[in-house]
Amino acid sequence: MTVVLVEGESDRVALETLAGRMGMGMPAVRVVGGSKGARGAVAALGGEVLVGLVDAGERADFERVLDTVFVCDPDLEGEFVRALGVDGVEAVIAAQGELDSFRSLQQQPFQRGRPPEAQLARFFGGRSGNKARYARLLAEAVPLDRVPAPLAALLAAL
Q1: CB 70: neighbour CB atoms within 10 A?
Q2: pTM score > 0.85 for this model?
Q3: Residue 26, SS3?
Q4: E strand segments, the chain
Q5: Residue 99: which residues within 8 A CB-CB, separation 6 or more?
Q6: Could you report the per-residue pLDDT of 138-157, keeping only the tens digit for each?
Q7: Beta carbons of 32 and 38 less than 8 angstroms apart
Q8: 97 — alpha (psi -120 to 50), left (phi > 0) or beta?
Q9: Residue 158: helix, strand or coil by DSSP?
Q10: Distance between CA 69 and CA 106 in Å, rounded?
Q11: How far apart are the first and last CA of the chain?
Q12: What's the average model confidence in pLDDT over 83-98?
């Protein structure tokens, strides 16, 4: 069995949600607690077939210890924003009753003038548990023919 190492809980949630939607068995996913945790996880899981899913900025930490690494650019949320488009992501936020909250964030001095993708990244990371919650919601919303490339390739490899 192949074990997928991921940096955080949102990565696990997205993979499991997509696998379920695609009718696949649940992949064995281990959250390593950030990219630096990959080395310890590899040591603990010796003998297993291991692959990784990591954000672009942390790819080197995974590539040092894994032969097969799938990279989200710049991160998981960015991949979903590209797949769904800003309007599609805003529709998911609106369905949660949080579009006013997002609009308020967009009006904050530091956020004004930033691209919507950067504002969305701040929104997802702004509250505890938000990244994992939206990872599930975005994975449920993305059409299966537009699953972000690193996630689609990883699931196909399983």
Answers
A1: 22
A2: yes
A3: coil
A4: 2-6, 28-31, 49-55, 69-72
A5: 90, 93
A6: 999 999 999 999 999 999 99
A7: yes
A8: left
A9: coil
A10: 34
A11: 9
A12: 98
